[in-house]
Specification:
By secondary structure, this protein is mainly alpha-helical. It has one domain (8-131). It is 46% helix and 6% strand. It is built from 5 helices and 2 strands. Helix 1 (13-30) packs antiparallel against helix 3 (52-69) and helix 4 (92-109) runs antiparallel to helix 5. The radius of gyration is 15 Å and the shape is globular. The protein starts with 12 loop residues before the first helix and ends in a 10-residue tail after the last strand.
Length: 141
């Protein structure tokens, strides 16, 4: 499961669809509707939020907005209530780590997108706000 800190506008079509599915799975976990993925490290920052369910709904809303902008038909009714929530702080080291990881994926899967993205300075998904710091402790390798 990869719940990107990066804005979903950087994802290729495969990545955006995968993110939608994975974020819906994360929502099910946070709602207690599935037994799998309960301890998945990507969920830590949502679980630590004052309103985890509203935070994942806000996250999904950002993904949905990007999908709609691209003409995709993601089912908005799967999100649940979306309300303003306190943003989640994310370390700049984590953003850089994810950006490099995404660029590697794009280089293999979507070379044209990689070429258009490689020199960009990425922004975060609207739920996140950057702050100085290292890669998250829950991040793998």
């Amino acid at each position: 499961m990869r719940l990107w800190t990066l804005h979903p506008k950087y994802l290729d079509p495969q990545g955006l669809v995968a993110l939608w599915r994975e974020a819906l799975l994360a929502r099910a976990v946070l709602r207690g509707k599935t037994v799998g993925y309960q301890r998945h490290p990507q969920l830590e920052r949502f679980k630590a939020h004052g309103s985890p369910r509203l935070a994942i709904n806000a996250y999904l809303a950002g993904v949905h907005d990007e999908a709609v902008a691209r003409g995709y038909a993601f089912d908005r009714s799967k999100i649940g209530p979306v309300q303003p929530v306190v943003p989640i702080a994310v370390a700049t080291g984590q953003i850089e780590h994810e950006w490099n990881h995404l660029l590697q994926k794009l280089a293999r899967r979507s070379p044209l997108l990689y070429a258009s993205h490689r020199d960009l300075v990425p922004v975060c998904h609207p739920l996140f706000v950057p702050e100085p710091g290292p890669v998250a402790s829950w991040e793998r390798g």
